[in-house]
Design a protein that fits this description.
heterodimer; A: mainly alpha; 11 helices; 74% helix; globular; B: Alpha-Beta Plaits; six-stranded mixed sheet; four-stranded antiparallel sheet; 13 strands
């Protein structure tokens, strides 16, 4: 019955197709609560865009100081799309993963089956990718409904957002596997994710940051995700710039995966 | 009793099996074989190395040194292949609180590459086997300890394993729940499933195991059937004497003062009682009385694995 599967589960491979089983598990859990995902996936973007884009935007637009006279709603909509994906990626990579490693120990149950440690890692990252896709598509729907995008290229902001989510999830999941409790996560969000959310060119151009802080913004994945999504949404794509942004995100995903591969093995195979 | 005469290839074979965590040696060069269809036990106190041994057999913990084969396969290279034929009941329940009772089993079957239909069919059947059919749609959280344990056993059977590893299957359960579990394990054994379990309960070892090894401080200190071990290491009966203590006294030495000399093959002094190992407990009790000893309570019982353990290690199994 499992002869074919066994031949494929060779050592040294990054993961076997059994990572798909882990994705199935996550989808099974998701099936129980999909309506609430859908509801918050639509209402959150709506509230944010109306409050900040439309409400706050009235004052910002009056000053007319955004580059190219872009309406504030159009300016922050793609940025919020990406930050939401980042938040989803970061939070899914912390508490739920810790639960599977330490609290419910369901990873340990799965490891008693032919599933291996790397299957767990890859499977759960696929789930995070799926969740980020779902949220981003819902966000896109709200953007389109509110008329907050100038270019049809805005649909490509979805894959950019998903890549950004993974650029956070992969390194954070590597970090999670080194933790024994959730104490580190609060610090991560307080001193990592929240400042990024505020200062990565989300609400105002990074050129407005003090000069010494600007290079700091360039090395954060969120800056690249926001810049890429914004250029697509506003139809102001520079091919070289876009390539750099996407390559930067992909590099972080790959580095994060490599680190997580090590920390997962260290944590789960003892 | 297993058929050892034909000497079938062992399901598990360990030679000099060792597990170290840094400077700490959890398992120190143990040798054992488990034959097909046998119920084999590791008996020992907490920290003796039982769980580490089980985790190496389960291929989830790399072997530090020595030899280990499971189904004749190498855990280091053929782990997934071994695990596909293995059922594991870990010490912690590791159930998925986000899924229902039935879903816990069905998704586990998927990890073994069963089709959804087949996994669902087996899951339904197994819930019947462990008497949890009525709870199949419920969440796991509100189940009692015994029910969770039964669910974990059902989960471990979803791939129809020929070898079942059980790490302290009944720790923390009430007597009724334990007996129900023992009954299910006995039925599995009847069906030809090889059982390999750890326990620190001597009654569990006596109930379930054809053969066992006693582990203490990372080593195997004795091996045999429960009966053989009792015959080899202790007398048939034990006389337990308890003395009422006077104020300020910490043990019973004052009462003894050599008065039990010659009454028994061996005398063991525990903090709360004195164990007199003898072939005839009643006779020894009468003799003690004749010598003027007036214990507060007298109990004559058959020797158990607990006594074997005490003899071998000088310590009690459950403290």
């Amino acid at each position: 019955m499992t002869a074919v599967a066994l031949r494929r589960a060779r050592p040294g491979a990054i993961a076997s197709r059994r990572s798909l089983r882990i994705l199935e598990h996550d989808l099974l859990v998701f099936r129980r609560g999909w309506h609430s995902y859908l509801l918050s996936g639509l209402s959150q973007p709506f509230l944010y865009l109306v409050a900040m884009g439309v409400g706050l935007g009235m004052y910002v637009n009056r000053s007319g100081s955004l580059p190219g006279g872009v309406p504030y709603l159009d300016y922050i909509a793609p940025a919020l799309l990406v930050t939401q994906a980042m938040m989803a990626g970061a939070s899914e990579a912390t508490w739920p993963i810790m639960g599977k490693i330490e609290w419910d120990k369901t990873y340990h149950a799965a490891l008693n089956t032919p599933v291996g440690a790397l299957d767990l890692l890859v499977g759960d990252l696929m789930w995070i990718g799926f969740r980020a896709t779902l949220l981003s598509v819902l966000f896109l729907v709200v953007i389109v409904v509110l008329g907050a995008a100038t270019s049809p290229l805005v649909v490509l902001a979805v894959p950019v957002a998903v890549l950004t989510a993974l650029a956070f999830a992969a390194p954070i999941i590597a970090f999670t596997a080194t933790q024994t409790g959730d104490g580190g996560f609060n610090a991560l969000f307080r001193f990592g994710i929240t400042p990024l959310f505020l200062f990565s060119g989300t609400f105002f151009p990074i050129e407005k940051l003090p000069l010494f802080l600007q290079p700091l913004a360039w090395i954060t994945p969120l800056y690249h995700g926001v810049a890429a999504a914004r250029s697509l949404s506003l139809g102001q794509v520079e091919p070289v710039g876009l390539t750099v942004h996407v390559a930067a995100l992909a590099a972080v995903v790959i580095a994060g995966l490599a680190a997580a591969r090590i920390t997962f093995r260290r944590r789960l195979v003892v | 009793m297993p058929e050892r005469s034909t000497a079938p290839e062992p399901v598990i074979r360990a030679r000099g099996l060792t597990k170290r965590f840094g400077a700490f040696t959890a398992v120190d060069g143990v040798d054992f074989d488990v034959a097909p269809g046998e119920a084999f036990g590791f008996l020992g106190p907490n920290g003796a190395g039982k769980t580490s041994t089980m985790r190496m057999i389960g291929t989830v913990s790399p072997v530090t040194a020595g030899e280990l084969t499971v189904f004749g396969l190498d855990p280091a290279r053929q782990g997934a292949q071994i695990r596909s034929r293995l059922g594991v009941v870990p010490q912690a329940d590791t159930l998925d609180n986000e899924l229902s009772v039935l879903e816990n089993l069905v998704i586990y079957g998927r990890y073994f590459d069963l089709s959804w239909t087949e996994s669902r069919r087996r899951a339904t059947e197994l819930l019947e086997f462990v008497q949890l059919t009525e709870r199949s749609g419920d969440k796991v959280e509100p189940l009692s300890g015994g029910m969770k344990r039964r669910l974990v056993i059902a989960r471990s059977l979803i791939n129809e394993p020929s070898l079942l590893l059980l790490d302290e299957p009944t720790t923390g359960l009430d007597p009724q729940a334990r007996h129900l579990l023992w009954d299910r394990l006995y039925r599995l054994k009847q069906r030809g499933v090889t059982l390999c379990l750890t326990t620190h309960y001597m009654d569990e070892a006596e109930q379930l195991c054809d053969r066992l090894v006693v582990m203490d401080r990372a080593r195997i200190v004795a091996e045999g059937s429960p009966r053989q071990l009792i015959d080899r290491y202790v007398t048939r009966e034990v006389l337990e004497l308890r003395f009422g203590r006077a104020e300020g006294e910490t043990d019973d030495s004052a009462f003894l003062d050599g008065q039990l000399e010659g009454l028994a093959e061996r005398i063991e002094q525990l903090p709360d009682r004195i164990l007199v190992y003898t072939a005839d407990g009643e006779a020894a009790a009468a003799a003690a009385y004749e010598r003027g000893l007036r214990p507060a309570s007298i109990l004559v019982r058959r020797s158990s694995l607990e006594d074997v353990f005490l003899r071998l290690t000088g310590r009690s199994l459950v403290e």
